[in-house]
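Continuing the series of single-chain predictions for the mutant panel. This is the parent chain; the variants come on the following pages.
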Amino acid sequence: MNADTLQYLLATRRPSGISIVKSQAPQRTIVHVDMDAFFAAIEQLDHPELRGKPVIIGADPRKGKGRGVVSTCSYEAREYGIHSAMPISRAYRLCPHGEYRPPRFQRYSELSRMIMSILSEFSPLVEPVSIDEAFLDCSGTEKLF
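Parent structure:
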């Protein structure tokens, strides 16, 4: 049976109790939350004197001879060319006056849990990807906000 025949039969013969409903695939609304420079932002939150300054989270730079890498840095530090995964010794050479801080994972985890809890107020379907990133399935909630 070809499509024309099926269309003709559906148009002319409708058995009782059957209705034909055209449907579309349901639309999904997925929100991606990525809290860029999360660790550095928390340091600036907890230590207001660091606001507006280049903040670098990672290994001890030991005056440019340190080993290890930059975990993250503030936007102010990025203006000096510093970025995540950069050797900490190179970061120090680029910005010796920066505020170098060791990571405080317990504090970052605490605030991450609080933020994920807030996100769950917008959707019960929150999928954390990492400490500073999550996906929310907000399908069907569009008219609530």
